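The passage that follows is intended for readers who have already worked through the single-chain material. We present the inputs for a multi-component assembly, then the predicted structure in tokenized form, and finally a short commentary. You are encouraged to pause after the input and sketch how you expect the pieces to fit together before reading on.
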Amino acid sequence: MTIRPFGRGRLTGAVDVVVVGAGHSGLAMSRQLSRLAIDHVVLEHGEVANSWRHERWDSLRLLTPNWQSRLPDYAYDGADLDGFMTMPEVVDFVTGYARFIAAPVRTGVRVSSVTASDDGYVVETDRGTWRCRSVVIASGAHGVANVPAFAEAVPCAVQTLTAKQYRNPDQLDDRGVLVVGASATGLQLADEIARSGREVTLCVGEHIRMLRTYRGLDIQRWLHTLGILDERWDTIDDIVRARRVPSPQLVGTPEHTTLDLNALTERGVRLVGRLAGIQDGRAQFSGSLANHCAMADLKLGRLLDTIDRWVAENPARLMSAVAGLRPADPTERFAATRLEASPPLTLDLAKGRIGTILWATGFRPDLRWLQVPVFDRKGRLRHDGGVVDAPGLYVLGLNFMRRRKSSFIHGAEDDVRDLGTHLATHLRQGVVPPARRAAG
Amino acid sequence: MNATVNKVMEAKVDNGVNVEALLGARQALTDAPEAARFKWRATCSWVNGTHSRSTVQGFFGLGAEQSHKTAFTYDADHPEVFASEDNGSTPVEYVLVALASCLTAGVAAVAQNRSIQLRSVKATVEAGMDLQGILGIDSDVRNGFDGIKVVYDIDADASREDIAALVAQSQKRSAVFDIVTNPTNVAVEVR
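Having made your guess, compare it with the prediction:
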């Protein structure tokens, strides 16, 4: 391994590894590279923990309890292990980590392109050029909001916002709001906006129903204890589909509330099918709502069955795994998702009742700067558990990238350990990507 | 249960569905998206009154013209209470037939893939319609169904939840369910 020291004040130079992004993933990788004595720099277009600071709505808390807020050699050290961090607390946590590991972060440096060269990669930024042998993409999974093509047909009197642009209900006029998408995001926003007194309609397609607590324990405790969060990408039948699954319907609140479609119905939110199109100023909803809800109910039932079976088979292991907590009786279940007999199939957007459409339809990474031919025909990064399909190129933090927990803060630890080892081997072997592949 | 025993047990399940071929096609068409583009066709000729006869035989797929083993014909008409001669099912009944047969084929395929032996599968389909729509009596009433209800009676080696999951997955993957539940642009032209 060649160590090429660089001056502290220089904004450009040669380095073994460039990590793009100083969020929790990029910092965790920085820690791993430091442990392996690999020379690297972390380039961040904004500040440390930038998207946690600037691209989340005000009321958001993590979906994972504080005991899961951990990064390599670092963990939440407060008293409320079962609580859920607010965004300012997450920012403190991540920036505290950057200080703790003394990460070589260059903030305010925007990467404009990464291209392959004879001996690695050239990283162009708005503040100079870096040459390196390896690049770690840690710029996040939430770069661009997915918005359907028919969004263009939304009448101009209706405001549209993505979940990235939404902050709080004060941004909205007093009219009704159509929230599109029933992931954790869609449910939380529908709930908050309904509480603000606005009429809310929620478009529900495929979704993952979840309970916040089951048998007296947080669902994350069960998923962790049963090893479900550690399931690897190379053991899943259809990983492409598994990666597309929307985030489970969860919210982190001090009250440990379960937020599901029934709770929203009680709050007065109207449930309709997936938004299938917009024609002549009318939103068209799919007639598949009942099936999507039936599927989600069945899947939740199967998860709870799995937990019950595990408790029945492993009482001794359970006691140590949950630190003396005794799970409650398995009698509690959940009510089937309640729906109207005939949910509406259309909604007139031009009549003035709807003031805002909120797209909670997921995100994709923004990798327009990555000018290496590593994308499939649908524009998705080709990677095998984070090892991108070009020598020396790695990615972090994508949904179910390497493990089911890869997109969570606590998922970074195992992923950077694996990928750091792979990267170190790559540097030792001196494999270089062929420059001619940079043409794409 | 070890893998060998598991495999032997799976081999016993036979719903007459070649799952290996279906999974093979899925892989092949993932790698060759152009071959996955199909065109389905039918022709329909007026016979007399509300009676028409439709034929299907050719279709396009896997990059080439294809054909059914034989031409299938379908007579459509209206019943005598509509002052018609009742030479065949009504067109709306063909929609119910299409939905039920698509979902039922899906139930068999999903069951095979999940190693569930089916003994009997019966779907009963009912759709409501208010004739004030097609007769132009009330403009607030749509022409089409006001709802469709499908009830399955399934006898299979599986729990009630697993059977419910079969039916749910079949809907998720059904072409006709999608056609019926989601809008489709329709272009009708005259040559």
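Commentary: The first strand of chain A starts at residue 13 and ends at 20. Chain A touches chain B at residues 206, 273, 276-277, 279, 284, 286-288, 291, 294-295, 298, 301-302, 342, 377 (CB under 8 Å). How closely did your sketch match?
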